[in-house]
Prior knowledge:
- The protein contains 12 helices and 15 strands.
- By secondary structure, it is an alpha/beta fold.
- The protein has one domain: Rossmann fold (3-Layer(aba) Sandwich).
- Helix 3 (55-61) packs across helix 4 (81-101) and helix 9 (257-271) runs antiparallel to helix 10.
Amino acid sequence: MKVAITGATGFLGGKAAATFHRLGMDVIALGRDPQKIQALQQRGLKAFVQDLSEKEKLLQSFKDVEVVVHCAALSSPWGPYADFYRANVEGTRNVLEACTTAKVRRLVHLSTPSIYVEKTDRSMIKESDPLPKHSINHYAATKLLAEKEVLNAKGRLEVLILRPQAIVGEGDRSIFPRLLRLGKKGFLPVVGMGKNKIDLTCVENVVEAIRLTLTAPKEAVGGIYNITNDEPVALYPTLRGVFETLKFDYKERPLSFEKAYFLGSLFETLYRPFPGKEPVLTRYAACVLGRERTLDISKAKTLLGYRPILSVQEGLNRFLESFRE
């Protein structure tokens, strides 16, 4: 199978490209980081520097490709809306147009459960459950718009959408590194009661879910699928375990959810004139740290045959080993 992967210089895209190459697939890896593209080339992959705004190059990259896995996105809790829209909506639109013109059979689109985030606890969220009236940040808002672009392309090609929750593992540059920066500074903010459970997902499990979508049957096509490790964990005991493993000397600082959310909103207002500088706290961060959010993955189990292949603890161990290095 010939597969093109956008965002192959990112955490998830890079892992998918390397895994599929190892499995013997004909992989076209596309990304914007020249150094990481070169590293992929040195591992024997066909890898090219590619910006999603370059429509002609994108079309050439998709020539004779059977499936495109669209991992590329601007994923951040803060930044100018125009940047998110350009990367997540216009970029996805360009990928879809190139797929149609190149006669690609199937597109697998990587979305996000950030679209579920709101002020209340939510447990075992299904893909069909109502979404918040307002997105928590620009990332969630534009990823939701991108999903609509993909679903509108149903008549032109086979599409599947995955919503993997909180991806962790070796190479993670977002979730745990952000939290560990706090640990290095000597404190851990405990928002709310500190008893909230969350879903984490090992990057290897997300890659396995993507692999399954490549050959998923027709009844699975057109669907949206939550992806997790299917083992919700208590957030703060997990963080304490990580901090202690790394021998951080830290203190916990309790903060009510209401105060954290208010401060996040206040900081966002104060930082709005400076979109290049991320606030010390956002409403999104307050919700992630202080509210329960777990996902129902029964649909992925039933229609994709998805089963996690790596436990949360194994994924964390791999991250910690790489972090130490």
